[in-house]
Amino acid sequence: MSFAFGVALFALGILVSVSLHEAGHMLTAKAFGMKVTRYFVGFGPTIFSFKRGETEYGLKGIPLGGFCKIVGMTPQDDDVEPGDEKRAMWRYPVWKRTIVMSAGSITHFGLAIFAAWLAAMTFGLPNPDFPRDEQQIRAEPAVIAIQDCVLPDTTYRECAAGDAASPAGAAGLQNGDRITSINGTPINNYGELLTTLRATTPGSTATIGYERDGQAGTTETTLATTKRPPIDNPDGPVTEVSALGVGLVLSTPGLVSYGPVEAVGATSTFIGDMAVATAKALQRLPEKIPALWTAITGGERDIDTPISVVGASVLGGEAVANNAWEIFIMLFISLNFFIGVFNLLPLLPLDGGHIAIAWFERARSWVYARLRRPDPGRVDYFKLMPFTYVVILIGGVFTLLTITADVVNPITLFPR
């Protein structure tokens, strides 16, 4: 029940975000005097509508986005009534049109920043000092968490009958203990723990030195056998090695909370990091297509592959079901920021495409004026329609791939 509630709540959050996106276009257009004739939430058949002034507001039957109609977005639009010629959007200065067309993305950025600021004061934001690469993780103190079992190989799954019990648990070690030695070899960090275990014969008896609540102790246990690749080569050949049946407890918290003022700086840093990550993710989109197809056709789903709003909603449901509201909020922030950036790409029919054309027209007019040549006028959008259709087709195929992958082979954050 909580999963379904989480899915519905996240989907509602997306709908509200997109509706506010369109409201950003509408409000800025009205502020500049442009004529806005319609603002609707959703698509399809109209459930209800009302007219206030010159604008019709309403709700459609399919809650997938929304739209607003600004008169005369392009010179080729034929929706300009007599007497409204001066209010057609394309006649306004390029800076005003830029503000109107970017207002949707600015709204998404505003939602992401505000949600991140609230998160900074409540759940916390990702700790910039949190270890993120293998070298940093291995440098952490060898503070352990007892695992339920030792899996026989690198395939992650729930423990099953026949899996070896955790040798650490059998020896009486507890969560939070710090391993200090194995068979007399000092252990200073998690990397040394792994290295020493790999050098120990699988199935042999080992003497484990540990520290608990400041008190030193020792215990003995029989090491389990598992299969792992070399420590310095995760893609190398898998061989049998010793296992203690423990995980690492990181000494650095993953999230850090701030006061209202400190949260401003922390939010700025977080959003800056997200901007860099989003740019890298957009660059990697083409190379992720084969991975999506592999996931659809029965292969393992790469957690780094793109997800659709369907997949994001499912992850939101998982987060709520597991009481991980911080993940729910982070998903909301990430999705809004990504949509904001994506909509500014200089491609029609995206908002960024209209902005790029407006500035191209302005630059071209300036150049022609310097050359004392007649102004070439406005761009003919009809000539750009083939390119627009290609973008729509590629976007549609990509959306279909992500939705299909999210349905048949979804990314999951928690074991099921």
TrEMBL record:
Annotated compartments: Membrane
Pfam families: PDZ_6, Peptidase_M50
Statement: the UniProt record of this protein carries the keyword Ligase: no
Segments forming domain Peptidase M50: 10-364
Transmembrane segments: 99-125, 387-408
GO MF annotations in UniProt: peptidase activity
Domain of life: Bacteria
Annotated ranges, domain PDZ: 161-204
Membrane topology: Multi-pass membrane protein
Residue numbers spanned by region Disordered: 206-236
Keywords: Hydrolase, Membrane, Metalloprotease, Protease, Transmembrane, Transmembrane helix, Zinc
Gene Ontology terms: biological process: proteolysis
Cofactors demanded by this protein: Zn(2+)
Family designation: Belongs to the peptidase M50B family.
Name of this chain's protein: Zn-dependent protease
